[in-house]
Amino acid sequence: MKLLSICIPTYKRPPTLRRCIESVVTQIKQFELQDQVEIYVANDASPDNTAEVLAEFVKVPFFRCVNRAANLGMSANIKSMLTEALETSSFQLIITDDDFLLDETLGELVDFLTRQQSSNPEVSVIWTPRYSYTDDNELHGVVCETLDVDQVILPSYRNAGRYMYNGFVLSGLIVKASKIDYSFWSEYQENAYFPVIFSGDIMLRYPAMYWHRSTVHHAVLNECHWDRWGQSDAEITLRLFIDYLNAYVVIGQRLPSLWQRLAFYLSAFPRAYQMTNSLLITSGGFFRLGASEAAALLSIDKVSYAQLKPPAGIMLSFMLIRVIVSCLVKATALRMLSLVAVNEGKRNQWAESYERLKQWMFNAKFIMRWTA
Asked: Which uninterrupted H or E stretch holds 39?
């Protein structure tokens, strides 16, 4: 049994997949970790030369892969990958095929996991800060940087509400796949935020840990294969939003008492609000839709308001009120400032911010129509 499997799910990204695998192979050799670390790639029936890329590594003794005969979809492919990897390793680090392992990382990661096996053997999910970069290698932002120091998070419904969202970026997530409830996973397999759900479920039952160390170069704003979740950017955004709110409902439903569910949702609300603001208000793009496009989107069954499970609708109402009030206050202030500003640069800056707030308000208005 090896200490760690580096699990790489892949679909239609052969060039970046090769880079990802090479980043790990190099460091396994560099730190002489062949006896402790393996690479496992699960190709979800990519209709290109992905299998040929994988064939380049088959002679590497610590590399193994599977080429699915039929496309399973991202969730089912990763679920199968983890169930296969847990047979050969204690921990599993997920790196998606458009990302790669940062230099000089693997030796430190193995030392860290070895210490955790000894001092915190029950820790079953570990998240790290993810530094996200665009294709031109510009830093886009940092997510999941929850704390300033390494910290064990004890299992509780409040902590699940506070921290389960950290699973939403798969790259850099470390799990003990043996602790995942796969029958439960099967119930929500079509939810795009399945890593958030299985992270939350683990946090209800086992300690989790935040490791204040970036391990993976995470790519954003690149080509994503979200066809399974919609045919347009607006449809995909709305579907992702439904799935994100429902992820909290799925975990809330596992709690036995009304008091525990209430405490869980109160703990989850700040993060749910932040994601709502990011996913819908700042990047939803519904203000770009014409009347006929908006009407067509609102009529699609899989993105209808009815897909939100109780009490996600209540959470949404509170969040919309907060967003709208905040936007109104900021828009009023910016409008006044842009009218009275003497400095032209400041006036233009505030005017641009005012226009963005108007777009966010339009997005919020669209969501209110959706909930009517």
From this structure: strand 37-43
CA–CA dist 197, 92 (Å, integer): 17
Say what the pLDDT of residue 203 is.
98
Domains of the chain and any CATH numbers: 2-225 (3.90.550.10), 228-371 (no CATH)
Query: What is the per-residue pLDDT across 139-155, written as a single tens digit (0 to 9) for each?
Result: 877 888 889 999 999 99
**pTM of the model as a whole:** 0.91
- CA separation for the pair 109, 72 (Å, rounded): 30
CA atoms within 13 A on the CB side of 314: 8
Are residues 237 and 289 in contact, defined by beta-carbon separation less than 8 angstroms?
no
> 277 in helix, strand or coil?
helix
Q: Are strands 63-67 and 89-94 parallel, antiparallel or unpaired?
A: unpaired
In a 10 Å sphere around its CB, with 0-12 CB exposed, 13-18 middle and 19+ buried, how is residue 59 labelled? exposed
216 DSSP 8-state letter? E
